[in-house]
């Protein structure tokens, strides 16, 4: 879904340049890390700081980052004292950055076109309604070759009213894992809760940002996203937290996430109007209706979505057994 971008005002002069921070959650990456750092440091818009939060169990990634930091003062390296897990390490990137205007998470194994950051900064500088802007991406393999994989369409909510916008993102949005790597206004990110401690935190974050302002995609392929492994639900669940998991992770995640959408941001607690509260509950209902069919995905039982496509583990085992029986009978 695309909308025409209409900018307001003009580009900021040097004395008004926004404070921009990039956050890199690092975990045991050494092979592609130098290329990622080179790619970021070569951006045409170079007025930013890169905060690296190292959650690795090995010393190699930190040594690589420190070698770059010794040559470029824009890099700030932090080694966690203990394993945080994916969610808290992402949150730590934002906390390390401190006060800023714009923020973006960056992968430790990806690459970016030199104009990636500049293209997004220009939109946030000139379109006040946009709180999150992200570029189109190209999927690449370990050797840098382009993967023949369908890329989910982007979305732009420009021109939508405050009620329709979050509902459209919740009901029709795709590629939330791409959206979350865009450039976001720091104040909006704080209001949305940064990176929620839930299953599928990227989805919940983007929906909450849509409650605050517009989401827009740059119509250029400026991000080269490296697909190193096939997605695995069990691996994703293990990676979210290093040790302790919140008690509510024992409950069905579609229910928990829908509940999260009903909660008001602390900054607005007690000041929301009736229509705003109603919108949150309506949003939670839309979310639950869309995502309930994925509950159980990656487990032995599987989800209704996997059942319909014959991808549940028990269905695959049954097909394999039936094939073996048919071969023996021949």
Describe the structure.
This protein is of the alpha/beta class and 330 residues long. It folds into three domains: 16-233, Spore Coat Polysaccharide Biosynthesis Protein SpsA, Chain A; 245-294, no CATH class; 297-330. Helix content is 40%, strand content 15%. The chain has helices spanning 33-41, 60-69, 86-97, 116-126, 164-172, 176-179, 186-191, 201-212, 233-240, 253-262, 274-291, 304-308, 313-329, and strands at 20-26, 49-54, 75-79, 102-105, 111-112, 130-140, 183-185, 214-226. It has an eight-stranded mixed beta sheet. Helix 1 links the parallel strand 1 (20-26) and strand 2 (49-54). Helix 5 (164-172) packs antiparallel against helix 8 and helix 5 packs parallel to helix 11 (274-291). The protein is globular, with a radius of gyration of 21 Å. The N and C termini lie far apart (52 Å). Residues 6-15 have low confidence and may be disordered.
Layout of strands and helices, then pairs:
Elements: E1 20-26, H1 33-41, E2 49-54, H2 60-69, E3 75-79, H3 86-97, E4 102-105, E5 111-112, H4 116-126, E6 130-140, H5 164-172, H6 176-179, E7 183-185, H7 186-191, H8 201-212, E8 214-226, H9 233-240, H10 253-262, H11 274-291, H12 304-308, H13 313-329
Helix pairs in contact: 5-8, 5-11, 10-11
